[in-house]
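## retry 2 of 3
previous attempt timed out at serialization; input unchanged, resubmitting
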Amino acid sequence: MKPEESQDEVPAEAELEPLKRELAEEKKRYEEMLTRMKYLQADFDNYRKRMDKEMREAGESLARNLAAKLLVVQDELDLAARHAEGSKGDGELREGIAMVRRNLESALESVGVERIESVGRAFDPSVHEAVEKVQGTSPGEDVVVEELRPGFTFRGQLLRPSMVKVELATKAAKEEARASE
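## retry succeeded, writing output
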């Protein structure tokens, strides 16, 4: 080795140390920026999911409210159909009302509104509203004998309970059922 070469290497090593420190600092800044970016991306993903959920819930709430309002229209159509059946004239009017009623029922079903079947079934206070009770003679459980106003669910949740007439089971049968428990 020449003496000149060894002197050149020493300054090169001395110049390299600040560059290595600067590179290490830049790597540290890069890692910090990358970490921040990952947090921001996670925050944005959470925000997007929350907004999607809120939009879905808002749409569901609007549809539920509209369905509830349309049930009032359906009740009025049912009343008009019953009134038209009692009159002797205009068969076209009855047919028209029936057609509008079927179309409304179909539209409600297409968005998830389902009628609650009541007559002949056991009384269930979670979906039935008893507006009249009559004493029955048969043992067992209380049974719906007449539906005064239909009830509906919207996508599996109660939209409106059925207003029903309930035949109460005999008390002796109820007391025996409680005693056997």
